[in-house]
Here is the input.
Amino acid sequence: MNLEYFIAKRLITAKDYKSSISAPIIKIAISAIAIGMIMMIISVATGIGLQQKIREKISAFNGHIIISNFDSNQSEVTLVPISKKQDFYPNFTSVPGVSHIQAIASKAGIIRTETAFEGIVFKGVGPDYKWDNIKEYLVAGKLPDFSKKLNEDVVISQFLANRLHLKVGDAFNTFFMKEGQNKLPNIRRFKITGIFNSGFQEFDATYIIGDIRHMQRINKWTADQVGAFEVFVSDFDNIKTVGDQVYHQTGSTLDTKTIIEKYSYIFEWLQLFDFNIIVILVVMIVVATINMVVALLVLILERTQMIGILKALGANNWSVRKIFLYNASYLILRGLFWGNLIGIAILLIQKYFGIIKLNPENYYVDQAPVYLNFGYIALLNLLTISVCFLVLLIPSYIITKISPVKAIRFD
Here is the structure.
């Protein structure tokens, strides 16, 4: 029989336990651990969730790695064509970790309606385009099919549709400027088959997606010429390694750039979330630990006479310390239980109902995303228990300094 655990359990279940002097302090300690766990779970879930969601949105419109001509063009428009007759297309088999590659071509234009006009970038795609990334953001209509004959179907963002007063099924004229001066622009009439809303203002205010053959005709390219290639990797964590390998496997006239390099300002901003998460974890664990130390010291002082009696009966210091460590562990587990229960409930509510809204102009998403993974929740619990238990060994050392004679006489 575990004597220390038996005594600790009797102390916890005693009738005078809840009405003792230490009861309010114990409640504060449990509340501190619960609140700390809630804050840690939410901060990690929303921080990682925001990083992943923004990452997904950027890759949906750009891929993970962009292969383009080696020139000084820094715009979203592709100017010089690239031949599709490449060793890495249509399957990039020479680099492990590449899951898909697709050809695209983009050109700047102006959409003109009876009441408004907007500058856009027409992104031409073909039958190899990975629509799965855009399908998630489709709010009306359907995705176009470019696998057969040339058609005028396009997908436009809800942002542009609202500004231009357009809806699914409407047609509009788009003007594409020709190279050189004093030349009439190319005019194309497109029909909206789908409307998407990614919440990423930088893309929603810019892109419409249509058939790449329109771009090839306007630019007077052949069917084997495209503007760039977008490469997708199977594991984003390996994007830098795969990006280096892709660079070495492409020709000397081609350049490769990962989305981390292209949108460095966004990913540098996202890295700040890692620092914020670490700060929150440290602060919450420190607060919870301090409260537990105070609660343990009060429990020891409240049970000084019991400590003296146990020592007088032959109990050693470590045996007595274990009684209070068991007691403290109960308080920690109780706080963690409520913290996990409330924290996970808040995350589930946010995940399925999206109560907390965000400004997409500042955060690139319209609601706080949630990454719910029970693996990291278990690690947070284990970390909290380990740190608290190790720190509580220090105040429990005071028991070794208590004299049995003085403790029994203690009042």
